[in-house]
Amino acid sequence: MPELPEVEAYRSVAEAVVGRRVRSVSAPDPWYVKGASPADAAAALAGRTVTAARRHGKLLVLDTDGPHRLGLRFGMTGTLVVDGEPALERLRYGPARLDPGWVRFELDFARRGRLAVHDPRRLGGVSLDPDESVLGPDAATVSVADLGAALAGSAAPLKARLLDQARLAGVGNLVADEVLWRAGLAPGRPAGSLAPDEIRGLRRVLVATVAELCRRGGSDAGDLFVHRRPGGRCPRDGTGLARATVGGRTTWWCPSHQR
After folding, report:
1. Is 2 a catalytic residue?
2. I need a labelling partner for 7 at 20 to 30 A (CA). Which of 39, 90, 117, 168 fits?
């Protein structure tokens, strides 16, 4: 499932189309284009040159030399394919193959190549000029002050607050479990209960973990991941892992060292 590390990999691969001019836009699945018609998207992007590929949380943005930007969201199974090559070999919970019937949106460039979104489950989408102001600070670079503001005064479970993209952009289920396990914080603890030193420690672990998972190549590359199963034990102290639903997501944690 594309979380911040996967979308960062997509962004890196999308750098290849910076400087290319869009010849045509194809939307085999019109429903996949949000907030505009495929014809509007084609009119806004055709003839424009991609000037940057950047990421805000799980949102990939292609800037152009015109007045419009293209936002790409990948849902649970969306994959970016550039010049026929997928940005990742496969997603942990996605199909192991690419099917032409899963192409939902595509940019064809004037001199060479294409950029396409494959999405078997159609849970992602593309949009013109996405509203980035609705997203919180990016988890890869969040400051202590911004993280503290995201948690302050909240009785919601800590993990649920980390998953709230309006508070903190980019953290998904696997990253949240990995970060909280490394930080020694219980996922169900009230978010507003963290002391200042705990917020500083959480921010340090969050930024370091996100960077490490990006280097390793995915949100499923954490030290906890292979143990997130019935009978799994904490790789730090050997305690049997606990399982529950927190923030609507299946959650695994160590009841011994996560407080």
Report:
1. yes
2. 39
Angle subtended by helix axes 4-14 and 196-216, to nearest 10? 50
Which of 92, 200, 236, 249 does the annotation list as catalytic?
A: 249
Residue-wise pLDDT for 32-81, tens only, equals 999 999 999 999 999 999 999 999 999 999 999 999 999 999 998 899 99
Full DSSP string of 101-152? GGEEEEEEESSS-EEEEE-TT---EEEES--GGGS--BTTT--HHHHHHHHT
Report CA-CA distances (Å) from 11 to 15, 42, 122, 158: 6, 22, 20, 28
58 is catalytic: yes
CATH class of 4-133: alpha beta
Determine whether 249 is an active site residue.
yes
Q: Is the pTM higher than 0.90?
A: yes
pLDDT in tens, 88-137: 876 655 566 677 889 999 999 998 999 999 999 999 999 999 999 999 99
- For the chain, which residues make up each domain, given as ranges? 4-133, 136-253
Domain 136-253 annotated CATH 3.90.226.10: no
Determine the residue type at 38: P
